[in-house]
Amino acid sequence: MRVGPSQDEIRRQNLGALLRHVHLHGATTRAELTATLGLNRSTIGALTADLAAAGLVSEGTPRETGRAGRPSLVVRPESDRVYAYAYSIEVDRLRAARVGLGGAVLDRRELDRPRGLSAAEAAPLLAGAVKEMRGPVPAGAVCVGAGVAVCGMVRRDDGLVRLGPTTGWVDEPIGAALGAELGLDLPVTVGNVADVAAFAEYARGAAAGCDNVIYLYGDVGVGAGIIAGGRRLTGHGGYGGEVGHMVVARDGAPCECGNRGCWETEIGEHGLLRAAGRHDARGRDALLGVFDAADRGDACAQTAVRQAGDWLGFGVANLVNIFNPEMVIFGGTMRDLYLAAAAQVRSRLNSNGLPACVEHVRLRTPKLGEDAPLIGAAELAFDRLLADPLDAG
């Protein structure tokens, strides 16, 4: 005989649902929470009281109201008091941030990352950035964990980076290395940068309200975060979304993954710089230099940008035909390429995409900008708290 959830389990689920709503949507009145969560006023009052007693939310009167009568109390996340550390490990830089409950970036640091830096070498640098950020933390503030966004194939179970072709990482335990350096006795959760950025844009950015989203992220390589039916699509083991390694040209250029003709060899850093005749250049500044030269009329740069834009549209058309998203978001260097070659992207998408899939799809850049990976990494750390607010310590 199946036994239903206990009263305590129901209460904890409701606490999580209320805190998650306030975390994602910000200050919300009790009346709005009552309507959204489908609970009665007295239950909402009891839940907010529990969360306030735990220091997770605060309650107060609205700052302004045009209505007569007693206004409904507003519930706000305690962003300054409850926070997580977030990290983004990119090919040429390391970024760290302190992100408050509610998604506010409270503090941040950025460091250059020499290419070839191992996880064991990167962890002390990131930990040093955290130590710098601890100074301004208010007394009594609580850290609930840390999240890491990294370019590479991340094993879901333990955060091991199985393969990061563009970073040179193979079986790198960045989560364990960083946890040891931080010494916080708190979980460090690792995710793929495109996947976590996709969730951030879906939860509170450009794709809010869309249940089917593709977020394309470019650094040296290209990856995708995919939201399908409101769920993150990561595949068995967590390795899904490696769209940069779709083979699009059988006899194409060699890829750092060991294959030939991968999509990222045409639209990634190496392919675009090669097409522009800048064989010895590398890095985002070099890519921006190509886009700038194209804007100023450099014929070689214009040809390279048009060619890369056409390849970008080719791959996007395939993804749109397969996943039928409502929105495609271009992040990282894919944002720069899309903005420089939007006409080529849309033209190729319209030519190769199935009309029923293309007619509604919107192409966008990230609302959260470069903060999307950091905010997404913080969501990894907040997830445990939001699942059970009173037992996440």
UniProtKB/TrEMBL annotation:
<dbReference type="Pfam" id="PF00480">
    <property type="entry name" value="ROK"/>
</dbReference>
<keyword id="KW-0418">Kinase</keyword>
<dbReference type="InterPro" id="IPR043129">
    <property type="entry name" value="ATPase_NBD"/>
</dbReference>
<dbReference type="InterPro" id="IPR000600">
    <property type="entry name" value="ROK"/>
</dbReference>
<dbReference type="GO" id="GO:0016301">
    <property type="term" value="F:kinase activity"/>
</dbReference>
<dbReference type="InterPro" id="IPR036390">
    <property type="entry name" value="WH_DNA-bd_sf"/>
</dbReference>
<comment type="similarity">
    <text>Belongs to the ROK (NagC/XylR) family.</text>
</comment>
<keyword id="KW-0808">Transferase</keyword>
<protein>
    <submittedName>
        <fullName>Sugar kinase of the NBD/HSP70 family, may contain an N-terminal HTH domain</fullName>
    </submittedName>
</protein>
<dbReference type="InterPro" id="IPR036388">
    <property type="entry name" value="WH-like_DNA-bd_sf"/>
</dbReference>
